[in-house]
Amino acid sequence: MMHDVAGPALLDRAPVRVHDPSLRAGARVETLALTQASPPTSADESPPRARPARRGVPWRPRSIIPGFGLTLGLTLSWLGLIVLLPLVALFARAAALDMSRFIETVTSDRVVAALRLSFGASLAAGVVNAVFGAVLAWVLVRYRFFGRRIVDALVDVPFALPTAVAGIALTALYAENGWLGAPLALLGIKVAFTPLGVFVALVFIGLPFVVRTIQPVLEDLSPEIEEAAACLGASRWQTIRRVIVPTLFPALATGFALAFARAVGEYGSVIFIAGNLPMVSEIAPLLIVIKLEEYAYGEATAVAAVMLLISFVLLLAINLLQRWSRRHMERR
Q1: Span 265-314, pLDDT tens digits
Q2: d(Cα 133, Cα 125) in Å, to the nearest integer?
Q3: Residues near 322 by Cβ (< 8 Å), separated by ≥ 6?
Q4: In b/e form, how buried is each residue of 242-258, taking b as 16+ CB within 10 angstroms?
Q5: How far apart are CA 307 and CA 311, in angstroms?
Q6: For residues 260 and 128, is the Cβ–Cβ distance under 8 A?
Q7: CA pair distance 141, 277, nearest whole angstrom
Q8: Is the pTM higher than 0.90?
């Protein structure tokens, strides 16, 4: 009994030479089968090479999510249909004019005055919105007070309010018999039907862009950074100038660019309060509409092409300034 129990354990621990002829014959058959399944290779014959991995596009990083080609094609097609095609049609229609007529159209006194008012008022409104929008975003993020959520909701009113309604409301408010226009008229300040009214309307429609752009950045900016600067001996002005402003500048530039771009093309809220006097309070979008109503399509597209080129140059300069600011921050 002890011999029968210890036998399997010994077989598991060490190999045992088998003298049974039937087992040897079975081993020979298995060896022959393996030899026929994998024939030996000669010395001159090299083993089969593995298929090289397919190289990806050098300018595209590898991604585990499929569909890059399809989504890229849809993106480019959509942008080409919605953005590029109308711009090409605009420049093609403007190119139908003779060069002399094109220059005469875009350099006329009325067109130059309209462009000066549109871009000048838009830049001024963008600067004002950048300053007061940053202050408003700071108050909404850093302080807790009664009615804060109401103030935060009121910031989005220019987004939801139709532009024509905004123009009528501003005109009724700043007219000489309005709630704010009457006291200002006593001081000799006339807002409605003047370039100042254009500026007020552009400030109204551009403020939310700056606030909503800066607000998320301020929420991510921890107050501990300001406390650390104060512990290191920095004054409040030094903390604002060296810590807060450099951090907020890219978002501030983005908000300014959005407010400026919206103000340049604004039409509905401006025509009611501007007065639309040629050479005085006539904006460029209104002049384009007037030329279209006069069936002067070539002149209208010429003015629109000039507006587009000026806007593109200004936005490009703002984006370059924003990139420079980010690189400067990374180096610091």
Answers
A1: 899 899 999 988 999 999 999 999 999 999 999 999 999 999 999 989 98
A2: 11
A3: 249, 250, 253, 254, 257
A4: ebbeebbbbbbbbbbbb
A5: 6
A6: no
A7: 42
A8: no
Which distant-in-sequence residues (6+ apart) come within 8 Å of 273 by Cβ? 167, 170, 171, 174, 191, 192, 193, 197, 198, 200, 201
Q: What is the DSSP string of 100-144?
A: HHHHHHHTSHHHHHHHHHHHHHHHHHHHHHHHHHHHHHHHHHH--
| Helix, strand or coil, per DSSP, at residue 205 | helix
Give the span between the Cα atoms of 40 and 42, in whole angstroms.
7
- Helix then strand count (H, E) for the chain reads 17, 0
- Cβ atoms within 10 Å, residue 134: 23
CB 154 within 8 A of CB 229: no
User: Residue 198 — very low, low, confident or very high, per pLDDT cuts 50/70/90?
Assistant: very high
Structure tokens at 89: 């049609």
Instruction: Please give the structure tokens belonging to residue 309.
Output: 């080129």
Q: Which residue has the tokens 């397919």?
A: 54
Instruction: Give the chain's end-to-end CA distance (angstroms, integer).
Output: 85
Please name the amino acid found at residue 92.
A
CA proximity to 225, closest of 212, 215, 238 = 238
Listed by start position, the domains of the chain span 84-331
Q: What is the reported pLDDT for 46?
A: 53
Cα–Cα distance measured from residue 313 to residue 307, given in angstroms and rounded to the nearest whole number = 10
Per the listing, tokens 């501007």 go with 274
Q: Which fold has domain 84-331?
A: MetI-like fold (1.10.3720)
> What count of Cα atoms within 13 Å lies in the side-chain half-sphere of residue 36?
6
